[in-house]
Amino acid sequence: MTLQEQIRGNRLRSSIVVAGFALLLLLLAGLVTLVLDVSLGVAALVLAVLYGVFALAQSRSLVARMTGAREVAAGELQPLRRLLENVSIAAGLPVTPELRMVNDPAPNAFAAGLRPEKSYVGVTTGLLETMPKRELEAVLAHEVAHIRNRDTYLMTMAVVFAGVIALVADIGFRAIAYGGRSRRGGALLAVLAIVGFLLAPFAALLLRLSLSRRRELLADASAAEILNDPEAMALALQRLELDTTTVRYADASTAHLWVESPTERVGTDRGGMLEFESWFNTHPPTRTRIAALESAGGFRLSERLSADPPFASELLSR
Amino acid sequence: MLWLWILLGALVALSIVFVLGYNRLVRLRNEVDTGWANIDVQLERRADLIPNLVETVKAYAAHERGVFEEVTRARAALLRAAAPGAAAEANENVTAALGRLFAVAEAYPELRASENFLRLQEDLTDTEDKISAARRYYNATVMRFNTAIQSLPWVLVARPLGFHQRDFFSAQGDTEVPDVSFAAGAPS
Fold it and tell me: How do the domains of chain A map onto residue ranges?
């Protein structure tokens, strides 16, 4: 499969997953109005929409707080800023995203922001200390690709969607459990509704995670396209995989943002179990990601890492 | 009566296909224009840095007149060049002339230690990196656009509709193929 086909395929699948989200929410709203009061259904939806709008408006600063990303002063880290500028230009972004640093020894990076003009890229200090320039560029390209492909937007929406669905399901569940009198329809319908309310958040979570994994593969392919160097991306992923420090600030709610999953390790091959396990991961296994790049770029990655000095040494020498 | 409906349906379907395809071509062309604007900005920035650099070097090595003239000529040509091919050519010439200027600068230790000179040198390197980044994006958009208007059925109507092939940003003698092998035909 060529890179273009991968990009196209990923986009199509992402649209299907988003449609799945919308369908799930509609289904829930239908269940609420069917089994319970119409007014309660409407109230739950209004609350859900308000919650969603608030969450979207707050997402930018919320992410910064949760990841501990700080803004970088104007003259500071100029070489890194220039690298980010160059990658953004090569990606055709209208504006270079803001640069933010996360003080953490684990090498990782993330992108956030609803619109490309108001986005930022967060980089851990650990990334600068481990990555050579070529691989650091690939990681930055991966994050810039998330911004250009509107992944940050889509993923924020997905997180909010999942939250909203959980909220509506919870309201519906409680209303059935405690407000027996206002219930309509037979017992079968009620049971059906309870099962629906219980399963919906779970389905939303699985959808969200699957969407996240698709986006990671797409961003890998885009980064290779931006730099015209799929090998750099694969090398960077391999280096990240071999590094076992996990990000201190990361928790499950922001895991989807990072270039490499900050919380879990998918290293061992456990055959059939792995397939199931990977449903609950925000990122595809690194080996899958490297294999996709290898087949697109027509190269084989050697087992050992390149011995190039990390970018941090370049920063110090100035 | 039935065939009339079929005809009408076919006509509607055809015009939808046409509108979608036309809009795609317009979008691709706009991307090429944006890509070119990106290169233009960086070329201009490069040209803006040169007079300052020449003045700085002159202060230490006033008698190297030939090199200064060459750099100034190359810069003027770069500012005049409008078409992508010509601009790429002029840009190459600027690179060559600057290379000679920096080679001359090597012989003057005080110049090489000068803060101003070092900053200019760094800025110029940065601009060169940015030009090559912008060139990568621009050439990818040109590849996409040209492929689109060369494929059926658009190859038949592209010209009358005002879609013309665009040039890559690459110099004439450039043996290097425009670096678009990965970006070719990628969706926007």
Answer: 3-316
